[in-house]
Amino acid sequence: MNVFFHIGRFYLLLKRVVGRPEKLSIYWQQYMIECGKVGIGSLLIVLIISMFMGAVITMQTGAMIAESAWIPSYTLGYTTRQSTILEFSPTIICLILAGKVGSNIAGEIGTMRVTEQIDALDIMGVNSASYLIGPKMLATMTMFPFLVIYSMLLSMYGGYLACELIDKLPSPEVYVEGIRYYFEGYTIKYALVKPVVFGFIISMVSSYYGYFTKGGALDVGKASTNAVVTSSILILVFNLIITQLMLI
Amino acid sequence: MIELKNINKSFVGTQILHDINFTFETGKTNLIIGQSGSGKSVLTKCIVGLHEPDSGSVIYDGRNFTQLKNKKRKDIRKEIGMLFQGSALFDFLTVEQNVMFPLTMFTKMSREEMRDRANFCLKRVELENKNHLYPAETSGGMQKRIAIARAIAMNPKYLFCDEPNSGLDPRTSIVIDNLIREITYEYNMTTVVITHDMNSVIEIGDNIMFIYQGHKEWEGNNKEIIKTDNPRILEFVYASSFMKTLKDKLGG
């Protein structure tokens, strides 16, 4: 019963979010601000995580390949590329962003709710759901694919650096050969569908928890935690669904 | 003029408001008073449409707000200004942008015209040269005045003030009370103030409704309230030792 209540309320909120904006220019301005917050604000964390992630994938794969004489060395670059494009960059980075962006959205909207700022918007006649959530939703859905592409490049570069710095791994030239081996463009399409869907999940779920916060500071904290946990679970579920639909 | 007709409201089986009837008059400061938990805020939220009453009507100058669809309600909402208990200023906007906010949303004014209007409203509440500060950089009293400036930016016909003096010192409270009264008379607005501050009741109570446990217990004005013999009002008005002493000194 509780689940149906949340699904119904979520749907009604979504209906208000996609409702006609009062003034398009104001929403565009908000959208640009959110793009800056979501996109530029996440560049550093994506850089750090992606570089280390790529290096570790390369080291682990390199260690396994070294044990077998039958697996060619260029498999190292190939494996790093495939795992980065198919899973690590789109899913792991979005899980990290669920923590960073999701908690920020839930905290911001939750605080606005408990300090009556949302009531103030409603009384003025502004569609508060559309004004506050709409630009965030669009910004995450458009910026996440760029962050994922950025992460893919950095992750593969991390692997390259690992090959450069660690003697036991194959040479960087062999690694690059593997990176270029049997590349299928479709994997990029598959990888870019994920951040669009995950961006929607993160922004809407976090906004939902923030928008319906009741109480005070403690409840805003709870809303942020719930937003991150629920978004993460939904990302994993939808990851499975998208993979089933697009790859299998 | 705002008329309330038989307003009832309950939450999860508990009735909060019982058959409230009252008329808030134009050009007067109308007060809703009562103890904490008596239903003042719920009533106000029913009037402005943040809560739906279970039954009854809220009529704004002949327009039945409770029966209107959302789109029509928006038209009335544009005529409402509201001052919240915690000011509810937008943290991410400067003082000037806060006051300009309703203008940017609902008017076709140029940037300069909006700025002029915002400056006029800020000057009206005696807040000049604070335009570029953020709400967090201003005091509680200033925040209330900024919120009043924002509330009057669209020239509203109706002004709601939810406990405008909460958290303010007595001197600043008087400044805010006087400002609300002056603005009401100046713009001929229908002002509704929710308060339990006795000083406000005496200073600006042109038309008062006293709520007790969700029922309208009494109505009158600031002159009548100090003469009434209603025991619940007496209990409310003379709850503080200061008021008791004052009453004794004035000879009852």
Distance between the termini of chain B: 35 Å
Q: Can you write the helix and strand succession of chain A as a string?
A: HHHHHHHHH
Helix content of chain A: over 70%
Q: Give start-end ranges of low-pLDDT stretches of chain A.
A: none
Largest sheet of chain B: 6 strands, mixed
Rounded to the nearest angstrom, the radius of gyration of chain A is: 21 Å
Strand count, sense and barrel status of the largest sheet of chain A are: none
Shape of chain A: elongated
Radius of gyration of chain B (Å): 19 Å
Description:
The complex is a heterodimer of chains A (248) and B (252). Chain A has nine helices and no strands. Chain A is elongated. The model of chain A has no long low-confidence stretch (mean pLDDT 93). By secondary structure, chain A is mainly α. In chain A, α4 (75-114) runs antiparallel to α6 and α4 runs parallel beside α8 (186-211). In chain A, 83% of the residues lie in helices and 0% in strands. Chain B is built from ten helices and ten strands. In chain B, the strands form two sheets. A six-stranded mixed sheet of chain B has the order 6-7-8-3-9-10, with helices on both faces. The two termini of chain B are 35 Å apart. The mean pLDDT of chain B is 88. At the A-B interface, α5 of A face α2 and α3 of B.
